Amino acid sequence: MRVRALFVVSLLALMVGLCRPPMYNRGMALTREEVDHIAELAKLALTEDEKARFQEQLSDILDYARRLQAVDTSSIPPTSTVLPLRGVMRDDVVTPSAPAQVILSNAPLATADSFEVQTVLEEH
Fold first, then answer.
1. 3 contacts: CB under 8 Å, gap ≥ 6
2. Which helix (H) or strand (E) holds 100?
3. Whether 116 contacts 109, CB under 8 Å
4. Which of 53, 54, 68, 113 is deepest in the core (most CB within 10 A)?
5. CA separation (Å) from 86 to 34, 58, 63, 93?
6. Is the confidence at residue 13, as pLDDT, over 70?
7. Does residue 18 register a pLDDT over 60?
8. Quick check: helix, strand or coil at residue 18?
9. 41-97: pLDDT as tens digits
């Protein structure tokens, strides 16, 4: 599964043109050399069976991506999400806090209305 995921990530990088060398053809199935090159980019050692399977699968993915690119989306506005936007934070409500004496009663050491703590940094 890990091999397949890495291989698909490499293919997606090629599809968006991040690392497309000039040897990649468009409109045709991937060649065995192109599959070898993608495997090298992903640092994968593939068997001959895997290469043959990925050659077919990756070619199908590229063909599907080509079909998606042919869809007219000019009338669709750019969208960052298809879900409705909603706030996940509740409104801030002011409430009275506990009295200082109650809070300080839990402190191991307190003076007047403050916590006392041990010195962390000493002056040199």
1. 44, 46, 50
2. helix 100-104
3. yes
4. 54
5. 45, 38, 37, 19
6. no
7. no
8. coil
9. 999 999 999 999 999 999 999 889 888 888 898 898 888 788 888 888 888 899 999
- Cα end-to-end span (Å), the chain: 58
Mapped onto helix, strand or coil, the DSSP state of residue 115 is strand
Interatomic CA distance for residues 92 and 105, integer angstroms: 28
Residue identified by tokens 């936007």 is: 85
- Written as one letter, the residue type at 104 is L
Smallest Cα–Cα separation from 5: which of 54, 49, 52, 40?
Answer: 54
Assess if residue 49 is contained within a domain: yes
* Structural domain boundaries, residue 40: 2-69
DSSP string, 26-40: SSSPPPHHHHHHHHH
Total number of domains in the chain: 1
Is residue 42, in this structure, part of any structural domain at all?
yes
Name residues whose C-beta falls within 8 Å of residue 39's C-beta, 6 or more positions apart in sequence: 7, 10, 45, 46, 51, 54
What is the spatial distance between Cα 104 and Cα 80, in angstroms, rounded to a whole number? 49
